[in-house]
Amino acid sequence: MKDSTGISMSVIRRLPRYYQYLTDLSNNGIERISSSELAEKMGLTASQIRQDFNCFGGFGLQGYGYNTAQLANALAGILGLDSDFSAILIGAGNLGKAVAAHLFSEQNGFRLIAVFDSDKKLEGKKVGKFSILHMDALEDFCKQNKPVTAVLCVPDNAAKEVALKLDSLGVKSFWNFSHFDISSILPNSRVENVHLKDSLMTLCFLIKSDMGKN
Amino acid sequence: MKDSTGISMSVIRRLPRYYQYLTDLSNNGIERISSSELAEKMGLTASQIRQDFNCFGGFGLQGYGYNTAQLANALAGILGLDSDFSAILIGAGNLGKAVAAHLFSEQNGFRLIAVFDSDKKLEGKKVGKFSILHMDALEDFCKQNKPVTAVLCVPDNAAKEVALKLDSLGVKSFWNFSHFDISSILPNSRVENVHLKDSLMTLCFLIKSDMGKN
């Protein structure tokens, strides 16, 4: 699968890891790193790293390696972390609260502008600096504020209806924590899924495999 | 990268998706599906699906396809969802509470047995049916109960110390929500990471790329 720029999703998915890794190195006073060192630390090959960076013009200097701060900065630009995409969060349960608190507290390309829930009892309660709005207010809010992205922290069985509603209101990208497959009903939307259950099942398999060895 | 059974991680990571997809089909009364239909719905190729299943002996019948309930059941067995791995959760903030509530409510191979936090003020408060224990009680608890897995919902800067402590107490697998790279200090542990920030950055890149097109 490729994105609109023709770069494969597997390369794109490595960019945040490179960015975070290089930022950590730079913050720890490490100014440069060779592609082979970077490869070893990240469990990749040096050739894969060079190929990945060549998708964006390449960054290393022969014999020098990479300047960590410069490369982190370049990756931030490629990822668009200096963007200011407006986002609304739907579903103010524990997961929604955690996502709001953890992820909109630093510069990461998005700016949270409202939190919604379908539970009338939650209306007006606070999530960080936001007063929870009822879903009845969604339509007017979207017409006025035109949010770019919606974060869906709703139950699986509510996700389809919420996604269709948001799409009709002009929201075309989703950070989806439900297991509902939004792409199946909105193939032209941008959907990034966080599938916690899949991750837990993967861990289960790995532990089971290890136990089979013993 | 391959797991201990010699199966590549990319195949392993598709197993939960197959399992969930086939379970949904079966629950919706769809008894059988061809590998080409399954491939189309999941954005894979039919040959990839056949290759994946061949790692486990293969399941389809020529001309019939797959029986959804039987295949879901076989995948549950392969994944080990009938296991009963004891798990403790460290970090009872919003994320920890969300993870506890969402993910230990159904059969998925794990059984949550305790919730810990380093904040004395949280001691004794409830997360679902669990009274939060203070980290001071971790050592005795692990010696008595020998948990298999720890779920780390702690801040990034606390993760290293907590992981080392747990490792010394015999915990060798981690479901890690922090951005600390546990594998770098505990290469023999099983670590499954949930990197929410990486996922958000990927979405940021995709939206930015789309906007560049217009």
Question: Can you give a write-up of this model?
Answer:
2 copies of one chain form a homodimer. Chain A folds into 2 domains: 9-79, Winged helix-like DNA-binding domain superfamily/Winged helix DNA-binding domain (Arc Repressor Mutant, subunit A), CATH 1.10.10.10; 85-198, NAD(P)-binding Rossmann-like Domain (Rossmann fold, 3-Layer(aba) Sandwich). Chain A has a 6-stranded parallel sheet with strand order 7-4-3-8-9-10, with helices on one face. In chain A, strands 1-2 form a two-stranded antiparallel sheet. In chain A, strands 5-6 form a two-stranded antiparallel ribbon. The longest helix of chain A is centred in the first third of the chain and has 19 residues, at 9-27. Chain A has 9 helices and 10 strands. Chain A has 214 residues and is α/β, with parallel strands linked by helices. The first copy, chain A, starts with 8 loop residues before the first helix and ends with a helix. The interface between A and B is large, with 59 and 59 residues.
